[in-house]
Amino acid sequence: MMADKNKTLRLLKTARGQLDGILKMVEEDRYCIDISQQVMATEALLNRVNREILTAHLRGCVQQAATAEDRGEKVEELIATLDKILK
Amino acid sequence: MMADKNKTLRLLKTARGQLDGILKMVEEDRYCIDISQQVMATEALLNRVNREILTAHLRGCVQQAATAEDRGEKVEELIATLDKILK
Amino acid sequence: MMADKNKTLRLLKTARGQLDGILKMVEEDRYCIDISQQVMATEALLNRVNREILTAHLRGCVQQAATAEDRGEKVEELIATLDKILK
Amino acid sequence: MMADKNKTLRLLKTARGQLDGILKMVEEDRYCIDISQQVMATEALLNRVNREILTAHLRGCVQQAATAEDRGEKVEELIATLDKILK
Q: What is the pLDDT of residue B66?
């Protein structure tokens, strides 16, 4: 993985902490909108992690792909990823 | 919370398990695209949880809001939530 | 429609003007990324129009729904709309 | 532009026709939710156009970038595009 490992781990652990908090809110039957906001905050955090990973991947793996064949493989992976993002 | 508690807890625990898996992938320096796909799968799961929570909220809290004042409050909360979703 | 008519018409006409511009760019075989950015700008504009329309709908039609039956109908419409947005 | 020109023009002209229809709906004060659905349908169409353009761009311009410098430029453009999409 090309992204900054510590930063990625830190963001993911924050997301996991938020998820534990959401589980608690559901157990305690908290108000729907309050839970929804926490879920969206965790989604936004994961979205940021994905952006960091794909950015580092583009600058690393894609840009340094040595052969035409390797480049072709990387491009097809990006197309599949883009399809998921833009679906 | 109006959504089905067990179903919501089950979806959230699945998301948490996926998050633990992603942390492990990052620790093990796995391939960027594989990690990205897992992050997007977890985002999709949280998106589903949010949908369940907001749907039950609409059918419960919003629809059964007794007074005009209560309805007004619920509507403003929905507008703020929609702003986040559509930003 | 409850949203400000002039404002909504103005935003939509701007989007249509952008769309004409994009058609021209494609005819002229302009660079992919330049076209992509214009398409995303037009999507963002339509997203804003949708937000204005749904916000005014919530404050108008939903909040002022007189009968329980009417409220129920409005809630089901919102759920269907939310499903599309959050899919 | 690398994407199929006729297909792209056809999709864009369909979107433009939908936009004209939405303008008419607003002029005629049609129901909010009906207008919202048409706006979202047009957004989905533009989203598909963007996907076609970026897919062809990846397979064309990015994959065939001859020099390291050219590849670097293409990668930075993709990162900026991804930032907009994932914002």
A: 84
Which residues, other chains included, contact B4 with Cβ-Cβ below 8 Å and sequence gap of 6+?
B52, B56
Type of residue found at C4 = D
Q: Which residues of C touch D12 (CB under 8 A)?
A: 19, 22-23, 26
Q: What is the pLDDT of residues D59-68, one digit of tens each?
A: 999 999 888 8
Distance separating alpha carbons of residues A28 and C70, to the nearest angstrom: 32
A10 to A4, B27, D78, D86: CA distances (angstroms): 10, 12, 26, 20
What is the fold, at CATH topology level, of the domain defined by A5-86?
Methane Monooxygenase Hydroxylase; Chain G, domain 1 (1.20.58)
The band of A53, judged by pLDDT with boundaries at 50, 70 and 90, is: very high
Rounded to 5°, angle at Cα B2 from A85 and B6: 75
Domain segments of chain B as ranges: 5-86
Cα A37–chain centre separation: 18
**Is B32 in Cβ contact with A53 (below 8 Å)?**
yes
